[in-house]
Amino acid sequence: MLSCNDHRNLLAWYDTHQRELPWRNTNDPWAILLSEILLQQTQVSRGMVYWKRMIEAFPTIESMATSEVDAVLKAWEGAGYYSRARRLHALSRQVMLPSDQGGFDGALPKNYEDLLSLPGIGPYTAAAVASIAFGQPVACVDGNIRRVMARHTAQPDPAPKAVQAWADSSLTSERPGDWNQALMELGATVCTPRRVKCGGCPIQSTCKGRHEPELFPTPKKSRVKAISMLAVVEIAGDGRPVLHQRPLSGMFAGLWGPLYHEANSMTPDQDWLVCGTVEHLLSHRKLSVHVFLKTTDVPPLGTLRSTVAISSLDEKVLAMAAKHQHAAQKREGVPQRAKQVNAETVAWS
Ligand code: SF4
Fold first, then answer.
1. Is the CB of 152 under 6 A from ligand 1?
2. Stated pTM of the model
3. Same domain flag for 10 and 149
């Protein structure tokens, strides 16, 4: 349990030590929601880049709602976890609906329950937006707050309900948004997973775990599943890769890329050029993608790369294929096709 002094000290610490983040300089609920969705699975430094890109492309909910989902995926390109972008697009369309059709007449709702009813909004995001954008007294719980709680109360494995109860009882009604952000900021910059800086912590005097902070909470073992796949990059007659839109569910849903196959589901064709293997880590999956280049029996026209959204894994796969295509052409004394075609073709390599 945090004391009155803890409350005062933590808010004062936050007022002077908070990081300068662009979404902290706005009261616009849409801009704040965008930052919360991005930061769910993206580091703050990268989140800033994508937040600026998204807010420039879609400055209002309406601007996103009137766009196609492909345009949202394109702007989100590189940020990863693309289901967030698709749900954000669905959210924008739902908010724009009239209230008698299940919408919110174009304005983000202010209260926790209504926010929670929107696509892509879970308990954390609903609490963060309700408190930060609308000043509602709702406590957030994220990984940072769980770690601060576990250490402050010296609990190795606190249950989700216990963490929520601690956060609820700690919340100040005066500045709930700042309070939630202060606790998260403490966990992100001082009460960090490693190299904890207890000497600079504003709540150290009441912390039960400060003598051995790294004992709390007990690290969870993460199971990473290894998956092996084949990627077949087809190079069309115009020198561009042929990209296909993926189905709207499953890995990289709605994005574009070369065809993938499970490694044990097909035998590579003898005509394909072996390029190498790309290793890529998703949250709980380690992908080994064996890349092949196919240049025979291909369509005359490829895909204009700048018009479609592709994942960072496919960026790596295409770069590897392009490198091998150019190397093979050099070996055979064939002029590099990229020089013969337009700048877009050169760009994808
Ligand atoms: S004193 Fe140390 S362990 Fe306790 S909350 Fe502060 S930083 Fe975390």
1. yes
2. 0.88
3. yes
